[in-house]
């Protein structure tokens, strides 16, 4: 597991520093070494310091990084893939780290929006690690794909909205990860595709089910049966992504959208996501009843009263998620 060491230098002001945590071993805990004493960090979101500037420095390669934004962006959390040697191909260790990080986010009620991005230039995620898979038995492959599928379903079911920030290639499992997010933003030079049939398999982590729900049955069949890659503009025209922006600007657009979301009532955002996701799997009559149940859960919240008060007083609401 990648450990962190603290490097301190003198400073005058008290600062709140967002941190990166790496979760890449089986336990999933990031360890901080402070004066020789290990501290395991799980839900702590910031390090406070007075008269010192604290820099977190990783001394080994990490595949998953977790960052909490602060200040006006408080409530936005970001998971960044960082495995440049494999173009962010997902292996066993990376998958464990991703799952553990997502579980932490789902338990954190201060989190309001999740961004999933890449720290590797010109690639979001190249899919599964095929070199690692070559050494697996069929039963091991099945277990890995099942875990990958359940992890992507976990993203889809998170209590917070998720936004995939796609620059460069999002192929195979990489695109399936993006499909499990609520929104997708890509750069014009993105390359998106599900090439599995060229390897004599099918997309097995949700691709055959989520893609047609976004782009329609006919287009999904074309993309999966041919394994064809499409660029950002075509992805936008088919409905695969919400926005296609100039290359290099996907993260800025994702932040813009995330900032709009965090200004809304957190409980309402959770209920809206739940009503849409689960309602789409029902007939219309049942879905409308389910919408009613979701609405009822908001009637007695403090946020609803705050929203009305803010409207009457012509000010911005101060929602607490209660």
Automatic annotation (TrEMBL):
Gene3D superfamilies: 2-enoyl-CoA Hydratase, Chain A, domain 1 (3.90.226.10), Lyase 2-enoyl-coa Hydratase, Chain A, domain 2 (1.10.12.10)
Keyword terms, alphabetized: Lyase
GO function term, MF aspect, one: hydro-lyase activity
InterPro entries recorded: ClpP/crotonase-like_dom_sf, Enoyl-CoA_hyd/isom_CS, Enoyl-CoA_hydra/iso, Enoyl-CoA_hydra_C
Keyword Transferase: no
GO biological process: fatty acid beta-oxidation
Residues forming coiled coils: none
Record carries keyword Isomerase: no
GO cellular component term, pick one: mitochondrion
Family of this protein: Belongs to the enoyl-CoA hydratase/isomerase family.
Protein name: Methylglutaconyl-CoA hydratase
